[in-house]
Design brief:
Length: about 60
């Protein structure tokens, strides 16, 4: 509990954490977590690429 409470800035997560979770539900939770993290990473990469390419000629060869 201490880890999750400190991770979420002292938001009390004790009422929503269950110890008896079915395996299928745990699997779907892991899959959803990976999909969400991939989408967030893709969004960050897209924002980075857009901001990097603005105002620069990306066709130049620097070698």
């Amino acid at each position: 509990m201490f880890f999750f409470n400190s991770l979420l800035h002292e938001l009390d997560v004790e009422p929503i954490i269950r110890m008896s979770v079915p395996r299928l539900q745990a699997f779907f939770g892991l899959v959803q977590t990976f999909i969400l993290e991939w989408l967030i990473g893709a969004l960050i990469a897209a924002i980075y690429n857009i901001s990097y390419s603005k105002g620069e000629d990306t066709t130049q060869n620097y070698f």
